[in-house]
Amino acid sequence: MKTRLCSATLAALLLASWPAVAAGCAQEQAIYADPDGAYELRFEPVGSTSAATSNHFKLAVLKTDLVLDGVVMEAGDPPRPAGMIMNNCPEGDTTGDELAACTIWEGVLYAVDAEGKIGLLSPEGTEAAAQILLPDLGPAIRSSSIWGKATVAPFDVLALTGCKP
Fold first, then answer.
1. How many Å separate Cα 52 from the centre of its chain?
2. Which residues pair with 138 in a beta bridge?
3. 7-18: per-residue pLDDT in tens?
4. Which tens digit of pLDDT belongs to each residue from 64-89?
5. Is 43 in contact with 124 (CB distance < 8 Å)?
């Protein structure tokens, strides 16, 4: 019971610390930021109903020229939204080694609703989550090839701050 209370308190504190954004924003239009204002994550339309990916996004390291590419696709058993954040990956056919060299972070993306309930990130066409959770994003950036240009490791929770028209 104590763990549940602490988790609920933490979720309430995180949600209370972010400005309210109007409901009705689709996931592919959602803009998120970290508490330090060092990172901005912008979802964008996938562009094809036959794509293997369910979401696309860009992660900008603010106050630098770094803009990282992100994709989400269903993977695993049971299927979950597996994401990857990449920096300067080669176009076209790539080897596993090439992909590993340009991958900054990979893991499951979780959605946090306005009440603090954690679930899986939904595909585009659904209402945007109030927050998204990218487990171990900060440590992954610290140990990646972009560390040095990026000098702040983000918190793993990013809050909805806006909605693209």
1. 18
2. none
3. 444 344 444 444
4. 999 999 999 999 999 999 999 999 99
5. yes
- Residue 68 neighbours by CB distance under 10 Å: 25
Domain that holds residue 113: 2-163
Q: Count the domains in the chain.
A: 1
pTM more than 0.85 = no
Query: In this predicted model, what pLDDT tens digit does every residue of 126-165 receive, in sequence order?
Result: 999 999 999 999 999 999 999 999 999 999 999 999 999 8
3-state secondary structure the chain: CHHHHHHHHHHHHHHHCCCCCCCCCEHHHEEEECCCCCEEEEEECCCCCCCCCCEEEEEEECCCCCEEEEEEEEECCCCEEEEEEECCCCCCCCCHHHHHHHEEEEEECEEECCCCCEEECCCCCCECCCEEECCCHHHHHHCCCCECCECCCCCCEEEEEEECC
